[in-house]
Amino acid sequence: MPDNVVLRLSGIEVRYGLTVAVEKLDLAVEEGEFVTLLGPSGCGKTTTLGVVAGFFEPSAGEVVLGGKPLVGLPPFRRNIGVVFQDYALFPHMTVAQNVAFGLKMRKVSTPEIERRVREILSLVRLGEFADRHPQHLSGGQRQRVALARALVIRPRLLLLDEPLSNLDLKLREELRLEIVGLQRQLGIATIFVTHDQTEALVMSDRIAVMKDGRIEQVDTPHGIYEKPVTKFVAEFIGSMTFVRAELVEPADEEGFGTARTAGGRIVPVRLDRAMARGLPVSIAIRPEKARLVRGNFTSNGIVSLPGRVVSVAYLGSRQEVRLDLEGGDRGMVETVADESQTFTRGEEVSLLAERQDCVAVPDSATVDGAASD
Amino acid sequence: MFGMRPWTVLRAVVAAIYVFMLGPIVITVLVSFNAGTRSVFPPDGWSLKWWAEALSEEWIDPILFSLQLASLAAILSCAVALPLAFGLTRHRFPGRNLVVLLVLGPLLLPTLATGLGLLRVFEFSGLIGSMGFWTLLIGHVVICIPFAVRTIAVSLHGLPSNVEAAAASLGASRMVVLVKIILPLIRNGLVAGALFAFIHSFTDINLSLFLARPGASPITVKILGFLEFGFAPTLAAVSAITLIIPLVLVLLVQRSARLGDFIYGERGA
What confidence category does residue B264 fall into, taking pLDDT thresholds of 50, 70 and 90? Predict the structure, then answer.
């Protein structure tokens, strides 16, 4: 991605007194790309967005947009569109005046302003609301006005700070697709901040999972889901069975090694990164990748973990079975709910999974164990 | 009485409060239409002659003087209060509590003390010889600032979050953000602050007693001076005029800005 990069953050650090909000953060966003900063509240994702927008100055690091360094430049000289969680519309202006504000600041001619406002409002399907005040719009409509207002200035970059969090579920799902559609159509590089993993998976080209002011992993949604590099990433996206273990044999040329579980079993595992022998790891297994059989089952090349059924949640066509695994770990298996798969509480079962679906992830934040959290 | 239901008691108390508050005012207004030369109630006949006298130059001049003084005091105290309110609501700085105390000072101290202090200051600075409208204005601005700071600060607290950041991201410099976004949104606070300042200045007597000079007297000082010769019905008419001016202003402002928001709650513009 070297030539195509619009925004590059390198070594960003933000401190408030003794607290470190963002630490050694590197991120590059390509032309037309939709990148999501995903993480729990307080992980530094909104602060990072604020650094890009110019609302906070980083204590260290560089922000380069389109080849131009941004640090020290006030927000009003950055040409970056921002959409806020609470819309931040100007209540004393109509929808059209809100949208026209950025163009007026750019001294665009009046006929040109009118044309572009009309164009963008029809793009977000709010043409007939131009003369309303924001107070008389629904939440979804307000957020579309905010989006139009940020896009009409043709910014170099679009920043979305949890724009869907104040909306109800159905509206959120609609707006997700609408935002991504607009973003693709206009081809504008976008950074999206959210704590909602589904939003991140559905909308993003790439996801950066953040924790404690650092990026744990940047990858495509598929990569994040299938190949998490740390336990935190594996845990944050989707559900997961974690089995505590210790690495016995590091990866061979095919990327497989073996690990010893807390229950003392030697099992084959997939290793996506080089890890040292003896490293404490968690074996991560997706519920939908695991199967369940009655009794104690062993077979070569297949991971088999004995346990006892704790609960069965019936979901219509599927069911979620929770287990107490040997060694004290908790397991979850998602299977079809048919007669061959009826399990009762207390029953002795085995959780089965192919070795390529058993990913060993290090327990500490960094893969090499160079730093821990 | 203790057998009555609590609401009945409360209603009676509220009614009594209104009677005691409004009663004297109503009587004053009625007395101003008295036909006799003495201020008696109920009036022993009806006439407009006291009103004619009240509208003569002798009384209209100090009323106009007070109007000018209160208008300027309102505008200037808001001009000073705006940056003060900004500083106090947005920033934590060393000495902030001292500034809070200084701003509230005129509200906490007896105005007599403020007046006496100002008089001494003007004396020391050699202004005592040229005292008049401008020195009165300085004093009035000082005592009006707390009211203006309060209402403007309430408005600033009520500003929707992120609108300033949004405007900045759209290309508005800090000055443009102030003029196009903040000022229109805190308009009600500014108007309410100016109104409270105007009324406070227009009705002030304590401070004006110290700073007024012959030829430069607000209407309140003039009324008090005239009282030494007894309560002539003219005074009732003059009082009624000074009552009507702030009342009309309040009614006008109330149409656009809800003043109650600034007295009863923290709800902003």
Answer: low
Residues of A in contact with B176 (CB under 8 A): 105
Tell me the residue type at B169. S
Tens digits of residue pLDDT in A252-300: 888 899 999 988 888 999 988 888 888 899 999 999 999 998 888 877 7
Provide the 3-class DSSP secondary structure of residue A14.
Answer: strand
CA B268 to chain centroid? 20
Contact B168 A54 (CB under 8 A): yes
A167 and A180 co-located in one domain? yes
CA atoms within 13 A on the CB side of A39: 23
Instruction: Look at residue A367 and tell me if it is in a domain.
Output: no
% of chain B exceeding 70 in pLDDT: 94
**Contact predicate B39/B22, CB 8 Å:** no
Whole-complex ipTM: 0.83
Residue in A74, A92, A105 closest to B170 by CB: A105
- DSSP designation for A152: T
Closest chain A CA to residue B183? A92
Residue B110: predicted pLDDT: 87
Give yes or no: residues A256 and A299 share one domain: yes
User: A89 and B163 in contact by Cβ < 8 A?
Assistant: yes
pLDDT of residue B215: 80
The continuous run of DSSP H or E covering A51 comes out as helix A45-53
Q: Which of A76, A91, A153 sits opposite B173 (nearest CB)?
A: A76
Option in B166, B176, B184 nearest A88 (CB)? B166
Claim to verify: residue A70 and residue A31 sit in the same structural domain: yes
pLDDT tens digits for range A171-193: 999 899 999 999 999 999 999 99
Please list the residues that pair with A210 across neighbouring strands: A215
pLDDT tens across A84-109, in order? 999 999 999 999 999 999 999 999 99
Query: How is chain B split into domains, by residue range?
Result: 57-264
> Please, which residues 158-177 of chain B have a Cβ atom closer than 8 Å to chain A?
160-163, 165-173, 176
What is the pLDDT at residue B3?
59
In a domain, A172, yes or no: yes
> What is the pLDDT at residue B226?
86
Joined tokens for residue A341: 């798969």
Q: Is A23 found in the same domain as A153?
A: yes
Mean pLDDT by 10 residues, chain A (373 residues): 82 89 94 95 92 93 94 93 95 96 96 96 93 94 95 96 91 92 94 94 95 93 92 90 91 88 89 86 92 83 89 89 90 86 89 92 58 34
Q: Which residues of chain A neighbour B268 with C-beta distances below 8 Å?
A: none
Q: CATH assignment of B57-264?
A: 1.10.3720.10
Same domain, A143 and A287: no
Name the residue among B145, B133, B148, B114 with its Cα closest to residue B66. B133
- Structural domain of residue A146, as residue ranges? 5-226
Verify that A10 and A52 share a domain, yes or no. Answer: yes
Q: In the listed set A193, A226, A259, which residue is the last one of a domain according to the structure?
A: A226
Q: Which residue of A has its CA nearest to B171?
A: A76
- Sequence-separated (6 or more) residues with CB below 8 Å from residue A35: A27, A29, A189, A190, A191, A192, A204, A205, A206, A207, A208
Verify that A11 and A76 share a domain, yes or no: yes
B173 three-class SS: coil
Q: Chain A interface residues facing chain B, Cβ-Cβ under 8 Å?
A: 53-55, 74-82, 84, 86, 88-92, 101-102, 105-106, 146, 149-150, 153
Domain count, chain A: 2
CATH code (residue A170): 3.40.50.300
Are A94 and A242 in the same domain? no
